[in-house]
Write a structure and sequence with these properties.
heterodimer; A: 370 residues; alpha+beta; Cytochrome-c3 Hydrogenase, chain B; three-stranded antiparallel sheet; 8 strands; 48% helix; globular; B: 203 residues; Beta Polymerase, domain 2; 2 domains; six-stranded mixed sheet; 4 helices; 6 strands; elongated; disordered N terminus
Chain lengths: 370, 203
């Protein structure tokens, strides 16, 4: 055997992130490469770990609610909804009908906002810079509604256990409708930029394929699962907050590739707008808070409650020991679980595709690391 | 819902949980915390499980409409496998743990399962002592890989047969497992902080 030099070695290990712009935060991926081909990946996460679950054990039920917004900060309202529903389940109460409808409106607006951010950053990663500016412009309409409703734009803490903190402001309905009217035609506009674009298609079609069986094996949910052809959405499968009253479709794809996931998310924005429009027309009158004690002390017990967050199944497992503080809060984060499938999708792909694949998983590192 | 006491900050009497209270008319437990009032769970799946695993099961119960099974630690992975192939519970939603250091078997290990075909959820639970090495579920559900790594990282539960049992969220050379109850929220690994951040202490 001749002495090997570095030129003989065909395997190369390089480090992508944690400061790489396409890793959407502080994700570090160690790539094993053969030329441009990816032989394997190893995700190094935890740079943003704040110990949210530990904090939960040291706060009262109400005090912990704002913290959950800081996990998936692009979909803070969804995080809050899941947490409130879990505590309400533990207390065996339900939010009032008025609160439930308002929750649906704000959560679906949030789904649109989250998908808009995803679209902008994902397209930017692949090289299309224009959509980012457009989506930020449209997202502003949603954030303005949040700001007017509860004072915060990003980490809203919009909901309270048992209902809502604030009554709706005058003109809320009109503004929500106007936001839908604004965004829907813009989604068509984005599609003219991307859907038939040859560069977009060649960068996304057939890239990062994850079929339905793999999705189930990896526990992948949300748009990724639907793009693989599984018509499963918790809003339909196990409706909460009155989702059964609304008429909407679950978009699915066929190939489970990056392009299909793009189409699924685009359609989900339209469906979200459809739900919002139905909900805003039938906000019932009545109280916004259920009768909830000032000090929340749920009976001893354990519940697991999950919702369809923009990124997939977001679950909360809460264990109560009867005290005002949760004994254990476990968050089942969709981003964390979905990210695990990166290795499967990236193996055999080109290094440039890794960027597309990270984008298509739609991770928020605040939620991956918690 | 339970009409709670108004004045906050007087925790005095409602501390001891254990005593079974006489059932008051409207609702259980305004004062002493109610015990998890789980009801026995009957149906097709507990039936199947009992036939297959018999006395390996400790409990089949349901609380607030959510079903769970408590089993002996050695049988949990066979149960996951059985449920996956015989009852379509093909999606492992979550693996997590709860620490109760006052018990000899201090950790509750919880597997949340979902079946797409049945649209049903089950939790499979076991109680293990510190140092017990439960079998990994990665052979049944691939997704258990990272989820078990997180349990290992946070609680120090080592899974036997896990292909890649490393810390996942905390730094690799961190000492201690933060979600154990005997770790306070302010506890730091001061050695790690000094070595890597060059400051005396994280707190």
């Amino acid at each position: 055997m001749p002495d090997t030099t570095f030129l003989d070695s065909s395997e190369l290990v390089i480090n992508m992130g944690p400061q790489h712009p396409s890793t959407h935060g502080v994700l570090r991926v160690v790539l094993k490469l053969d030329g441009e081909k990816v032989l394997g990946t190893d995700c190094v996460i935890g740079y943003l770990h704040r110990g949210v679950e530990k904090i939960g054990e040291n706060r009262t039920y109400q005090q912990f609610a704002p913290y959950v917004d800081r996990m998936d900060y692009c979909a803070a309202v969804s995080n809050g909804l899941g947490y409130c529903l879990a505590v309400e389940k533990l207390l065996n109460v339900e939010a009032t009908p008025r609160a439930q409808v308002v929750r649906v409106i704000l959560t679906e607006l949030n789904r649109m906002a989250s998908h808009l951010i995803w679209l902008g950053t994902h397209a930017l990663d692949i090289g299309a810079i224009t959509p980012l500016f457009y989506v930020m412009r449209e997202r502003e309409a949603i954030l303005a509604i949040y700001e007017k409703y509860c004072g915060a734009r990003l980490t809203t803490h919009a909901f309270r256990i048992g209902g809502l903190q604030y009554e709706l402001y005058d003109g809320f309905e009109q503004e929500v409708k106007a936001a839908c009217d604004l965004i829907l035609p813009k989604i068509e506009e984005y599609e003219t930029l991307l859907t038939g674009n040859r560069i977009w298609i060649s960068r996304t079609k057939g890239v990062g394929i994850l079929n339905a069986d793999d999705c189930k094996a990896y526990g992948v949910t949300g748009p990724m699962l639907r793009a693989a052809g599984v018509k499963w959405d918790l809003r339909k499968a196990q409706p909460y907050s009155g989702y059964e009253q609304y008429d909407f479709e679950i978009p699915t794809g066929a190939n489970g590739d990056t392009y299909d996931r793009y189409l699924v998310r685009m359609e989900e924005m339209r469906q979200a707008a459809r739900i919002v429009r139905q909900a805003v027309d039938k906000i019932p009158v009545g109280p916004i808070m259920a009768k909830i004690p000032k000090v929340i002390k749920p009976p001893v017990g354990e519940v697991y409650v999950s919702i369809e967050a923009p990124k997939g199944e977001l679950g909360y497992l809460i264990v109560s020991d009867g005290s005002p503080q949760p004994y254990r809060v476990r968050v089942r984060p969709p981003s964390f679980v979905n990210l695990q499938s990166l290795d499967r999708m990236a193996r055999g792909a080109l290094i440039a595709d890794v960027v597309a694949i990270i984008g298509t998983i739609d991770i928020v590192l605040g939620e991956v690391d918690r | 819902m339970p009409e709670e006491q108004r004045p906050e900050g007087k925790p005095a009497q409602d501390a001891p949980p254990a005593t079974p209270k006489p059932a008051p008319p409207p609702r259980p437990a305004p004062k002493a915390p109610a015990v998890m009032a789980a009801t026995p769970w009957d149906g097709e799946i507990p039936q199947l499980l009992k036939e297959e695993f018999g006395d390996q099961l400790r409990e089949c119960a349901s609380y607030l409409g959510q079903n769970f099974v408590v089993a002996k630690p050695e049988t949990v992975v066979p149960i996951l496998e059985f449920l996956k192939f015989e009852a379509d519970f093909d999606y492992l939603v979550d693996v997590t743990a709860v620490d109760s250091p006052q018990r000899p078997e201090r950790f509750d290990l919880i597997y949340v399962l979902y079946s797409f075909a049945r649209n049903e959820r089950i939790r499979v639970k076991m109680q293990i002592a510190d140092g017990f090495r439960p079998q990994t579920a990665t052979g049944v559900h691939l997704t258990a890989n990272w989820l078990e790594r997180e349990v290992f990282d946070m609680f120090g539960v080592e899974f036997a047969g896990h292909p890649d049992l490393r810390r996942i969220l905390m730094p690799e050379d961190w000492n201690g497992h933060p979600l154990r109850k005997d770790k306070s929220i302010t506890d730091m690994d001061n050695r790690w902080v000094e070595e890597h951040l060059g400051i005396e202490s994280g707190q």
